[in-house]
């Protein structure tokens, strides 16, 4: 197999024009792609990730034969992170690598009101959101939602270096209310002047186990 041709097809799949753009998009050190070409390396990991992220056919990436895009599957591969969102000391999701990908039927997601493919799975920790969901329950996070919607909702967010999952609601004066569904936990407020410190990872679209 021709590594140069495979790399060129990878650039097509990600809609990048140069080796530098592709390396930046894949978060690879500069020079990695040049080394692939010199050593005739086949980037199998990146080929698999291209299939997952773009739907590009593995056969086409490797050989140039067949259709560039796979026939639309009834399943969506959702990345799972072994991360727990709690009342603190959570991980920064952006710095983590998925532990695996879980295939979920698109019809199941649609039946639960989810109309985006940009999802991730993490896990709840602690009892602050009971009875809505329990510690250890999987949380399907809509990563397209980085702002609190007018009707509020349950969000995963980084604040002060920790990862939280709470109900967020904007107040009339611009402050942000942080609400635990468990009544034994007091409501908190993030002042309007401190909102730049909050980084919303996404909105909880589904919680608990759903039929794949």
Which spans of ≥5 residues are poorly predicted at pLDDT below 50?
87-91
| Secondary-structure arrangement, i.e. CATH architecture of the largest domain | Ribbon
At the fold tier of CATH, the topology name of the largest domain is Umud Fragment, subunit A
Biggest sheet strand order reads 2-1-3-4-9-5-6-7-8
Q: Biggest β-sheet: count, sense, barrel?
A: 9 strands, mixed
Instruction: Assign the structural class, choosing from mainly alpha, mainly beta, alpha/beta, alpha+beta, or little secondary structure.
Output: alpha+beta
Q: Rg, please?
A: 20 Å
CATH superfamily of the largest domain: Umud Fragment, subunit A
Q: Count all strands and give the number.
A: 9
Series of secondary-structure elements, N-terminal to C-terminal? HHHHHEEHEEEEEEE
Mean pLDDT, to the nearest integer, reads: 85
Shape, principal axes of CA atoms: elongated
Percentage of residues in strands: 25-35%
What is the number of domains?
2
The residue fraction in helices comes out at 10-25%
Helical segment tally?
6
- N-to-C span: 36 Å
User: What is the CATH domain class of the largest domain?
Assistant: Mainly Beta
